[in-house]
Amino acid sequence: MLSGFMSAFRTPDLRSKLLFTIGIIAIYRLGVAIPTPGVDYGNVELCLSQTSATGAFAILNLFSGGALLQLSIFALGIMPYITASIMVQLLRVLIPRFETLHKEGSEGQAKLTQYTRYITVGFAAIQSASYITMARNGLFFPGCSVDVIPNDSWNVILTMVLTMTAGTVFIMWLGERITERGVGNGMSLLIFTSVAAGFPSMVSSIWNSSDGVRNTVLVAIALLAVIAAVVFVEQSQRRIPVQYAKRMVGRKMLGGSSTYIPLKINMAGIIPVIFASSLLTLPQVILQFQGDDPAGWVVWLNNNVASQSAPLHIALYILLIVFFAYFYTAITFNPVEVADNMKKYGGFIPGIRPGTPTAEFLDYVLSRITAAGSLYLAIVALLPTVMFVALGLSTSIPFGGTSILILVGVGLDTVKRIQSQLEQHHYEGFLR
């Protein structure tokens, strides 16, 4: 792999792309450290030293690379854009116009991208106003006696909302520049950077705990095992053979070739885990607004649903992951459409009649590999949390194994993209 990196930097155009990508990531990390106008950064540092994020805020802070609790100009991170992208994909099922644009090729995709940008701005404005309100009310740092926003006049609040919204738009622009002129998917790399930035502090907290050396070694071994399993499953495919019949077009004989449909074991990616975790953070958000004397149902909600180690929480987590895995896979892969396209171009699965029987066969295979993929996601998402509880650690990795899924998935995709560009220059690439 080291020789692969050396070969990449020896190639002038690939070297410029890598340096451009690293430069954009450096700008992104610099923006994380710049506080929003109106925020007392000294008080923020004091509150961070006194309290630690828990529940929903810990998760959101992870995906912003630590910018949320610092109330920086990049406090919202890339999550408004991710939410808007997922919403546009879901709207394709509900709005025929969106599905028509999706089928129109590059022009339709450009229109959908423009809609995604508009929705991102709306989400960013709403989320920034919500987070500023929570910070003013002390929900970000419970127990901290100082005000992180000393001046709460309307013009200061409006400036903060506009700054955070503009920060999200700028992050979106940075991600698009990486996709266009750099290496890999820009949005994914920015999320990768945010998640990776929080790992040193997590390792430090484990090292400083009781039996720190033993716990650090055990966690490292477990993480390596999980990473190996994630790589194995993410690379796994169920290949459906497809044969194309020969046909005459004018005086030429076309077709007669054989190929396959690659169905990944985990076609939904990390989307089911993100959806399931987002829903399970709602009780934690509700608990943030309760006073010192909560009602009985609030106490039950805290003990059985909000607590990550509660059996009911774990059961709901698994069920939601399985549900969203099937739901998102059904949206992104349409067996009827694939069967119709195969029939149109003279393709068929050996032993299966074209048309409806092919669609039923694809749905049969897809439903079964999705079952395995959803259970794999649930195990990976829960394993770090279960291990931390078993070791008696007071800290935990936010979002469970989602961090590992993001790091490994984005890492594999980026390496493949670099390798494909190396192969264009007759290099062997990273993997031999």
What does this structure look like?
Pfam families: SecY. This protein has about 425 residues and is mainly alpha-helical. The chain folds into 2 domains: about 1-205, SecY subunit domain (Preprotein translocase SecY subunit), CATH 1.10.3370.10; about 210-395, SecY subunit domain (Preprotein translocase SecY subunit, Orthogonal Bundle). About 70% of the residues lie in helices and about 5% in strands. It contains 19 helices and 5 strands. It has helices spanning about 1-10, 10-30, 40-50, 55-65, 65-70, 80-95, 95-105, 105-135, 155-180, 185-195, 200-205, 210-235, 270-280, 280-290, 295-305, 310-330, 335-345, 355-390, 400-425, and strands at about 235-245, 245-250, 250-255, 260-265, 345-350. The strands form 2 sheets. The chain has a 3-stranded antiparallel beta sheet. Strands 2-3 form a two-stranded antiparallel ribbon. Helix 6 (about 80-95) crosses helix 8. The longest helix is centred in the C-terminal third of the chain and has 36 residues, at about 355-390. The radius of gyration is 24 Å and the shape is globular. The protein starts with a helix and ends in an 8-residue tail after the last helix.
Helix content: 55-70%
Task: Report the biggest beta sheet as strand number plus sense, adding barrel if it closes.
Answer: 3 strands, antiparallel
Q: Could you name the CATH topology of the largest domain?
A: Preprotein translocase SecY subunit
Lateral arrangement of strands in the main beta sheet = 4-1-5
Keywords:
single chain, 432 residues, mainly alpha, Preprotein translocase SecY subunit, 2 domains, 3-stranded antiparallel beta sheet, two-stranded antiparallel ribbon, 19 helices, 69% helix, globular, SecY, cell membrane, transmembrane, translocation
